[in-house]
Amino acid sequence: MNTKVAIVGSGFGMYCLLPAFSKIENCDVISICGRNSSRMEKYCKKFGVNRYDDWKEMLETEKPTAVAIAVIPKHQSEIIKYSFEHKIAVFAEKPLTTSYDTSLELTKLAKQNKLPNMIDFEFIEIPEWKKVKQIIQNEQFGKISEVKVDWTFLSHDLKNKIKSWKTDTQQGGGAVALVLSHTFYYLEYFLGKIKNFQCKLSSSEKSLNNGETEINILAEFANSCIGEIHVDISNSQTISHVITFHSDNKKLILENHSSSLVDNFELSLCTSNGCKKIQINNSIVVDDPSEDSRAKIVAFVAQKFINWCNTGIPEKPDFEDGLRVQELIDMTKIHS
Fold this sequence. Notes:
This protein is an alpha/beta fold. The chain folds into two domains: 3-122 and 294-317, NAD(P)-binding Rossmann-like Domain (Rossmann fold, 3-Layer(aba) Sandwich); 123-284, Dihydrodipicolinate Reductase, domain 2 (2-Layer Sandwich). Helix content is 36%, strand content 24%. The strands form two sheets. It has an eight-stranded mixed β-sheet with strand order 8-9-10-7-11-12-13-14. It has a six-stranded parallel β-sheet with strand order 3-2-1-4-5-6, sandwiched between helices. The N and C termini lie far apart (50 Å).
């Protein structure tokens, strides 16, 4: 039996989650809750789904097996609680909530109800990132002593002077929740637990809600690796997402200098003999060139979620991972 999926969200839920879940076998996307618009009508018609104004009415009427949520973080917990109470599996966006305590409550509810639960940390599904994991796990690369992250760009809301939840930390916005959450997850995915860190946050005048826009972190991992992290979402001069892993005599560089968040990454391995690019078989087929570029990568995470729903075998990243990231997010407030 196919998993019946309902989607909540008229932004990312519509233009990314809807096409992502629609790519998956053994999955039927049946409805979406979101604001009515010509674009929404076009998406509903294209993917053959019903639209609702009220998410609770949608869940009560459609009775889905699972729900995929992309709403303001401040409001996500209410939908998740209701879903778990009605035995509906949940695919959530990051951050899971706006506080550790609320995230802990949801994680406990997921376990108590024994329901599939997943967080959309999609970067590790990019082919070049998968290759990084393989190289790091290969003992020939050596123990990583240092990692550096430089992620700079000008966010849509700052560029267009939009006063939205994405620049409001009380609603789950700000660079820490929106961007650094990904970095926290992927660094621990590659290198293990962060033991402690020092953090400096600052806000650009471009942020109309005064949410932080620049982050500098000096971190220490449990394996003694040192991490330097720089995130700036207010930089109008540079677009860059570069992660550099250092071992005793080697350097692995994962970099993207394009406007796409998930495309155009390049991977290089540097030794005493120089640097050599590593070619990756990037054969992801995209049926619709106008589709949001993230949908094809999110589809890999969504596939794991549907597999869990259909087989009962747990997958990652789950709410425990979301809880851990929320713990690190809250730590930035203490250490800044």
